[in-house]
Amino acid sequence: MNFGNCNKANTKEIIEVNIGEDFICPECEGPLIDILGKKPFPVWIIIVIAIILVLCGGVYFGYPFVKGLFDKKKPIEEEHIVPVEDITLDITSLSFVNIGASMRLAATVHPINVADKNKKVIWQSIDTSIATVDENGIVTSMASGSTLISAYTGNGLSATCYVEVANVSASNAPKPATQQPVNQTSRIIEKTYSFGKYKGDAVNGYPEGDGTMTYNRRVQIAKHDTNASPRFAESGDYFIGSWGNGDIVSGILYDKNGNIKERIIAPKRFNQYDISKD
């Protein structure tokens, strides 16, 4: 910027200055003129800008990681519910020769990895005047006759045990808990139908109580069966169980060789046959 103001500057003459001395032009006796607008950029501003950039970069890249550490929730483990598929009893047929005798039934819920809360079993006796069962599966004989003991799972599956109590003297047998309806008579009958022969308890000629039906031809067990596919009895098969007004209540269907074919429980009675028209 000394150009134009000093001939020595215009001619770019070299002028030596001793170390430590200020420059004074020997011609114009003036100092060197600083170049306006070309002052060094303050270092502290550069440092501040660098710090800000480092902090911004750290926040940008580090925030997701830090947030993940504090905000990440532990995933909820979904409970795998194993459905109950079946229930079985260790004993499917009991015989008592004395009143007051007891036997414990053990129920197993399948599969074995079902949750404990779903292994609960509800016990029920079809006729408590013949035999009772408590919450632990202990069956106690009450009177001569036959009945069914059932074990139910929470989703409605069941397994049954046929119980027979031998005839005992009237003095040792407890009185029945139920009373026959007025104007009805109960007796043991043997009656032949077109499909088979019934022998057992009856009221006014209709199966009522415990009895056995032996089939002489293939026939559907129940016209109003709620199973997905109808169940049939073949010639020679026989059904032992409880009846009510000519309807099956519950029992077991056997083949002619005495093997169990089907356990039948009717929560709501369904007509087996229109016996009055047979």
How would you concisely characterize the structure shown here?
The longest helix has 29 residues, at 43-71. The chain has helices spanning 7-10, 43-71; strands spanning 86-89, 93-96, 102-104, 107-110, 122-125, 131-133, 138-141, 145-152, 158-165, 186-192, 196-203, 206-215, 219-220, 232-233, 238-244, 247-254, 260-270.
* Tally of discrete structural domains: 3
Rg measurement, Å: 50 Å
How helix-rich are the residues, as a percent range?
10-25%
Strand order of the largest sheet: 10-11-12-15-16-17
Estimated structural class: mainly beta
Number of helices: 2
Describe, in plain words, how this protein is organized in 3D.
With 278 residues, the protein is mainly β. It folds into 3 domains: 7-71, no CATH class; 82-173, Immunoglobulin-like (Sandwich); 185-278, no CATH class. Helix content is 12%, strand content 35%. It is built from 2 helices and 17 strands. It has helices at residues 7-10, 43-71, and strands at 86-89, 93-96, 102-104, 107-110, 122-125, 131-133, 138-141, 145-152, 158-165, 186-192, 196-203, 206-215, 219-220, 232-233, 238-244, 247-254, 260-270.
